[in-house]
Amino acid sequence: MNLSIRSLIFLSVRIAVIFLLVIFILLLKNIKLDPRTSFLDKEWINPNKDLTLFYNTTRANAAVVALVRNSELYGLLESIRQFEDRWNKKYNYPYVFLNDVDFTEEFKFRTSALTKSKTYYGKIPEHMWSYPSWINQTKAAECRAEMSSKNVIYGGSESYRHMCRFNSGFFFQHQLLLPFDYYWRLEPSVQFMCDIDYDPFLFMQKNKLIYGFTISLMEYESTIPTLWDAVKQFIEEYPHHIKENNIMKFISNDNGETYNLNFEIGDLNFWRSDPYRDFFNHLDKLGGFFYERWGDAPVHSIAVALFAQKSEVHFFNDIAYYHIPFQHCPTESEYHEIGRCHCDPGQNFDMEWYSCTPKWFAT
C-alpha cells in the first residue's frame, strides 16, 4: 500500500513537471521583446528582427577611446567604472588610451584593473601634437594672451589647442586605432546613468550610421570667429565633396552659427575619407586651431553636416550621459524603469535655450 502511494506521488510529480515545461515552452514561443527595452526609436529598429543587437556574441570591429592625461586618472576611473557597470562588462570592447606623454605604471595598473577587456596604451607621435611649420608661434602666443585677457574659456591654454587639433585631424590615424572601424569616445569624470542593454556599435553598423551623439549645444562664438568663413571657402573650392541632402541647416544659419556636439560614437573610416581629410587640411593651413581656439567638436559637427545625410546620424536618446555641466537624461518613464536610471529628467539639458537638440529634430 505504501509503495503504491509513493509510486502515485512520484508519477504525479513527473506529470506536473512535464506540464510546467510544456507551459514554459509555449510561453517562450510567444514572448516578444518589449521595444521599450531597446531604447531605440521604432523607425530605427524592430527588436523582433534585430535580436543580434541584444543576444549575440558577434562584436563590431570597435574600441573605446580616451585621450587622457596621467593627472586625470581618478576622474577616468570613475568614468570606466560606470561605463563597465552600465554597459561594457556585457560586451568587453577594448579600450585605447592615448596621451602626449608616456602613461605611468600606476595609470596602466589601475585602469586595467577595472575591466576584463583588453587595454592598449599609446603615446601620441610628436608630429600629431606640435606646431606645423606654417604656424607663427609668436603670433599664436599673442593670440592666447589676448583671449585669456578676455576670459575666453581655455583661451590661454596651449595644450588645449594641441588636443583640439589632434582630435580633429589625427586621432583616427594613430597606430593603435588603425585596426578598428568604430569608436566610442570616453572622457574623465563623466557619468552613464542608465543601463544600455544592446550594442550601439552593432546598431551603428547594421543601420549604416556614421555618427551618434547625445548632447548638442551652441559653441562659444569667441572661440571660432572666422571658422564659418573658412568653411564657406572650403565649400567653394571643393564642391564635389559636399553631399546632396546634407544637414547644413542643423549647423548654420545666415551668420554662420555652429554647434558643439559632445559625446561621440562614430565611424572611423568617415574621418579617414578624402572629403574629411581635405576639409581638415584646409582648416589646418589657415591656422585657426592656434590663432583662434577652434575646437574639435565644431569641426566634427560641421564635417558631419557637410558630408552626411540625416539618416546617417543618430541621436542616442536612450543613453543617459553627464559631462559637466550638461546632462542628457531620458524623459520617458519607461527608460528609467527598464534602464534603472539614476538621473533626474527635470535636469535634462535637451530643452534649454542653448541646446541644439530641438533644432536637430526640426531639421
TrEMBL record:
The chain crosses the membrane at residues 7-28. One of its GO terms (biological process) is protein N-linked glycosylation. GO terms for cellular component: Golgi apparatus; membrane. The active site is at E264 (nucleophile). It comes from the Eukaryota. GO terms for molecular function: alpha-1,2-mannosyltransferase activity. Belongs to the glycosyltransferase 15 family. This is 23292_t:CDS:1.
